[in-house]
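In response to the reviewer comment on reproducibility (Comment 2.3), we provide here a single inverse folding case reported in full, input and output, so that an independent group could reproduce the run without further information from us. The structure tokens appear first.
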């Protein structure tokens, strides 16, 4: 379900929104919705920021990697539970607080992040298969 929201903003803010719309190719409504969603997520999870990327904007740790990078370790960890945080801190050069922020965000948006990781894995598998086919041709 979708509801209408009417908001009054200063002329300067509206102009900045319009400028971003032109840069991103999004409608005013779509961009405002995206920024509102991201802002609410950042307010709920201090330490999370959103960064642009080749496949769209993704949540990341302020001063650290994208959340999916940390989430992959959460998903695949097979070691003792007490060793996971120190491993992540050492591997990704982040603090215990950043690991905690990523865990909180992942806990709330797990389905979204797991879907993203699954798509990344599928793309990696396709790229590897393409590379293997090309190698096979070059060896003939």
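Designed residues, in position order:
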């Amino acid at each position: 379900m979708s509801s209408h929201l009417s908001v009054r903003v200063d002329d300067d803010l509206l102009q900045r929104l319009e400028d971003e719309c032109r840069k991103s190719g999004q409608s005013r409504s779509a961009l405002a919705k995206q920024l509102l969603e991201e802002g609410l997520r950042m307010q709920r999870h201090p330490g999370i920021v959103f960064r642009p990327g080749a496949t769209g904007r993704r949540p990341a740790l302020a001063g650290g990697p994208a959340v999916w990078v940390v989430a992959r370790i959460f998903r695949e960890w097979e070691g003792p539970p007490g060793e996971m945080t120190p491993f992540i801190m050492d591997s990704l050069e982040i603090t215990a607080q950043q690991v905690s922020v990523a865990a909180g965000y992942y806990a709330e948006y797990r389905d979204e992040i797991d879907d993203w990781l699954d798509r990344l894995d599928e793309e990696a598998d396709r790229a590897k298969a393409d590379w293997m086919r090309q190698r096979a041709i070059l060896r003939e």
